[in-house]
């Protein structure tokens, strides 16, 4: 495995950053999880746009132009000989001192890229679905560091997932301050009712997921159903015909049991199955080419 750090490639055992990096000391940084399918990087422009927006939101100057970051991502995947991959792109504030002052990170941001394989859930879960609980942890308010910033501070998400694990579930739902559903610890959430599809709006305190946007596009183009964004309580999930989650790691996957309630028929429903099929077809036939770009030179 070759890992990119600040313009150089290192073997896995030699890939290191400073203990004085503010990403390590304070979670001061941002990241993107990106997928490659069939030798093409999925929705790379969307991920890099979100990275740029997150950087701007936390006053973080990216160490190189977006186009150069794009080239580094492609080259990292290529060097590792991967066609299907999970790519982790991380930008930290960089090396500073033990204080909070970002001005002390004088050398600028640290950027590293890891390309590896991932299987968040075994294939059987895409047929039988996930068990989900509601976490006791509330989503951060919009008056705090908005969940729209994909920051390195994922402690609330990690603790919510730990609650799910302790409760024999695979995912956890976070409610916002008003008690409405926001998102899961690592996924966006949708439900199907009477032929309509619903999902929380950005005002509910969510990360606007790249896969979320694709699911909404495919729902409209392939299923002929426009997704309705609105606030809703947990009850709407309990009484739904289907519930599904979306995320880079999970892709699109059904939730068939929530807080002990069986959803629909207790298996992956027809709408979710259709979306999974259309998503996989789309993901495997689109994206930024990794190896064709090299051949073209």
Describe the sheet with the most strands.
9 strands, mixed
Helix content: 25-40%
Number of strands: 16
* Apparent shape: globular
Separation of termini? 24 Å
Which strand-content bin applies to the residues? 25-35%
The whole-angstrom Rg is: 20 Å
Task: Describe the protein.
With 297 residues, this protein is of the alpha+beta class. 29% of the residues lie in helices and 26% in strands. It has helices spanning 22-26, 44-57, 66-79, 125-128, 155-166, 210-222, 234-238, 270-283, 291-295, and strands at residues 2-5, 8-11, 29-37, 40-41, 85-92, 110-116, 130-134, 171-175, 181-184, 188-193, 196-199, 228-229, 242-247, 251-258, 261-262, 288-289. Strands 7, 8, 9, 10, 11, 12, 13, 14 and 15 form a nine-stranded mixed β-sheet that branches. Strand 10 (188-193) and strand 11 (196-199) form a beta hairpin. The protein is globular, with a radius of gyration of 20 Å. The two termini are 24 Å apart. The model has no long low-confidence stretch (mean pLDDT 96).
List the helices and strands and how they pair.
Blueprint: E1 2-5, E2 8-11, H1 22-26, E3 29-37, E4 40-41, H2 44-57, H3 66-79, E5 85-92, E6 110-116, H4 125-128, E7 130-134, H5 155-166, E8 171-175, E9 181-184, E10 188-193, E11 196-199, H6 210-222, E12 228-229, H7 234-238, E13 242-247, E14 251-258, E15 261-262, H8 270-283, E16 288-289, H9 291-295
Parallel strand pairs: 7-8, 7-14, 11-12
Antiparallel strand pairs: 1-2, 1-6, 3-4, 3-5, 4-16, 5-6, 8-9, 10-11, 10-13, 13-14, 14-15
